[in-house]
Amino acid sequence: MNQWLDDRLHISRLNDKFLRKAFPVHHSFFLGEITLFSLIVLIITGILLALAYEPSNSMVLNSFDPGTADKPNMLPAAYHSALKINAMPFGDMLRRIHHWMANIMIAAAVLHMMRIYFTGAFKKPREINWWIGMLLLIFAGLTAVTGYILPYDNYAYSTVKVIYAITASVPWVGDWLAQAAFAGRFPGDGIIPRIYGYHIMLLPGILLALTGAHMLIMIKQKHTQPQYAKRLAYKKIVGVPLMTQQTPIMLLLALLFTGLVVLFAAFIPVHPIEYFGPPSSSGVDNIKPDWYLLWVFGALAIIPGFEWEVLGGVINAEFVGAMVFPGIVIGAMFAVPMLDRSKDNQYYAENPTNHPVRLAGGVAFMAMMIVMSVAGYKPELIAGGLLTTQNANTILWILTFLVPAISYFATIGIVRLIRAIREADERDALAHAHADD
Ligand code: HEM
C-alpha cells in the first residue's frame, strides 16, 4: 500500500520532510496542542449546528406555542431555530460542547501564551509566531463573541446593542463603521445574516489560515527545547518523532480531552436562552461579557463619562475604555519580542527565575487584568455593599495600579530569595565536591 501511494504521491518525501520531526516531551507543550484540538472540535460541532440553525431575523410562527389566529406568537427565525436545536436529540448537548469548547480554547491559548512568555520562547527567531499567536487570540475572541449573538435571545440582542454603540463611538467614522459592520442601523434586519457570515466563514477561515502558518513556522523553526534536553545532548534536538511516536500520544490526548469536555458539558448547561426570551426593545440590564473580556468592561466601568469635541468628531469614555485602552494593552502584548531583547534563547526554554524583570512584569500584567475584570463587576460590588457609589471609582483606580505594583515587587523579592537559596546550594555542592577531592 505504502509503495502504491509512494509511486503516485511520493509520500516518502513528505515523511522525510515532516513526519520525522522531533517533538519535545514536556507537559507544557500540550497546551498548544489542546488549543488546536479545541479548534478542531469547534469546527466539527459548528458544522453540525449550522445544519439546523436558521440565520435570519425574519419573524416566524413559534412552533412550540403558535398562539391564536388573531394573535399569532411570532419569534425571530434565529431564536426559534436555537429553541428547536435545544429540543432535538443531542441538540442541547451539541450547543453545550460547542460553547464550553470555545471557552476552553481561549483559556488554553492564554495558558499556552503564558508558557511562551515566561520561558522566553517568543525570542528570536520565534517573534513571527508570537505575532501570529496574538492574531489567533484576537480572532478567537471575535469568533466567540459573534457566536454568542447567533441565538438572538434578549441577552444576545442587548450584547449587539452594546457592541454597536462601542463601534459607533469611534470618532469621525464610527457611525459609518457600525452600519458597515452590522448591516445597517441597529437593530436592522441584516444583523443575524451578517454575524453568521463572520462566525461561520470569515473568522474560522482566518483562524485556520493563521493556525496553518503558526504550525508551518513552528515545524520550520523547531520547538524550543525543555531544559532537560540541554543535559541529554547539548544543542541537539531531543524528542520523539511525529510519526510514529508523537501522533498516537496526540491522538490519545485529543480523545481524553474531548471525552472530558463532553462529560463536563453533560452536567453543566449553557446560557439559558428560553429564560431571557426573544429580543425586546428594553433589552436586558447589566449584561456582562465572558470572563476573557471582563477586563474591557472593567475599563468601561471605571472611566468616568466625558465627551470632547475634536475637529468635528467626538471622543468619549466609551471609545477610550473599549477601544483605546484595549488597543494599548494589545499593542504592549504585540511588542513583547521587541521589549525583551536578551539573546539567550535559540534552543532552550528558559527558567523564568533567571529573568526576574520579565517574570515580575508578566505577573503584574496578570494582576492588572484580574483587578480590571473584578472592576467589570462594579454594579454588583456596589449592590453587595463592598463599595459605595461615591468611593467605587477611586478605590478601583487605586487597586488597578496598586495590586500590580505590589505583585511586581513581591515577585522580584521571591525570585531573589529563590536565587539566593539556589546559589547557596550550588556553593555547598561545590564545597562538598572539593572536600571529596
Ligand atoms: C488558536 C490559538 C493557537 C493555537 C491553535 C496554537 C498552537 C500551537 C502549537 C500546537 C504549538 C506547538 C506546541 C507548543 O509549543 O505548545 C505552538 C507553538 C507556539 N505558539 Fe501557539 N497556538 C495558538 C496561540 C498562540 C498565542 C496566543 C501565542 C502567543 C502570543 C502563540 C505563540 C507560539 C509560539 C511562539 C510557539 C513556538 C513555541 C516554541 O517553540 O517553544 N501561540 N502553538
UniProtKB/TrEMBL annotation:
<keyword id="KW-0249">Electron transport</keyword>
<dbReference type="GO" id="GO:0009055">
    <property type="term" value="F:electron transfer activity"/>
</dbReference>
<keyword id="KW-0812">Transmembrane</keyword>
<feature type="transmembrane region" description="Helical">
    <location>
        <begin position="195"/>
        <end position="219"/>
    </location>
</feature>
<feature type="transmembrane region" description="Helical">
    <location>
        <begin position="162"/>
        <end position="183"/>
    </location>
</feature>
<dbReference type="GO" id="GO:0016020">
    <property type="term" value="C:membrane"/>
</dbReference>
<dbReference type="InterPro" id="IPR027387">
    <property type="entry name" value="Cytb/b6-like_sf"/>
</dbReference>
<dbReference type="GO" id="GO:0022904">
    <property type="term" value="P:respiratory electron transport chain"/>
</dbReference>
<dbReference type="GO" id="GO:0046872">
    <property type="term" value="F:metal ion binding"/>
</dbReference>
<dbReference type="Pfam" id="PF00032">
    <property type="entry name" value="Cytochrom_B_C"/>
</dbReference>
<keyword id="KW-0479">Metal-binding</keyword>
<dbReference type="GO" id="GO:0016491">
    <property type="term" value="F:oxidoreductase activity"/>
</dbReference>
<dbReference type="InterPro" id="IPR036150">
    <property type="entry name" value="Cyt_b/b6_C_sf"/>
</dbReference>
<feature type="transmembrane region" description="Helical">
    <location>
        <begin position="130"/>
        <end position="150"/>
    </location>
</feature>
<keyword id="KW-0408">Iron</keyword>
<protein>
    <submittedName>
        <fullName>Cytochrome b/b6</fullName>
    </submittedName>
</protein>
<feature type="transmembrane region" description="Helical">
    <location>
        <begin position="357"/>
        <end position="375"/>
    </location>
</feature>
<dbReference type="InterPro" id="IPR016174">
    <property type="entry name" value="Di-haem_cyt_TM"/>
</dbReference>
<feature type="transmembrane region" description="Helical">
    <location>
        <begin position="395"/>
        <end position="418"/>
    </location>
</feature>
<feature type="domain" description="Cytochrome b/b6 N-terminal region profile">
    <location>
        <begin position="1"/>
        <end position="227"/>
    </location>
</feature>
<keyword id="KW-0472">Membrane</keyword>
<keyword id="KW-1133">Transmembrane helix</keyword>
<keyword id="KW-0349">Heme</keyword>
<feature type="transmembrane region" description="Helical">
    <location>
        <begin position="314"/>
        <end position="336"/>
    </location>
</feature>
<feature type="transmembrane region" description="Helical">
    <location>
        <begin position="29"/>
        <end position="53"/>
    </location>
</feature>
<feature type="transmembrane region" description="Helical">
    <location>
        <begin position="97"/>
        <end position="118"/>
    </location>
</feature>
<dbReference type="InterPro" id="IPR005798">
    <property type="entry name" value="Cyt_b/b6_C"/>
</dbReference>
<feature type="transmembrane region" description="Helical">
    <location>
        <begin position="291"/>
        <end position="308"/>
    </location>
</feature>
<feature type="transmembrane region" description="Helical">
    <location>
        <begin position="249"/>
        <end position="270"/>
    </location>
</feature>
<dbReference type="InterPro" id="IPR005797">
    <property type="entry name" value="Cyt_b/b6_N"/>
</dbReference>
<keyword id="KW-0813">Transport</keyword>
<dbReference type="Pfam" id="PF13631">
    <property type="entry name" value="Cytochrom_B_N_2"/>
</dbReference>
<feature type="domain" description="Cytochrome b/b6 C-terminal region profile">
    <location>
        <begin position="229"/>
        <end position="417"/>
    </location>
</feature>
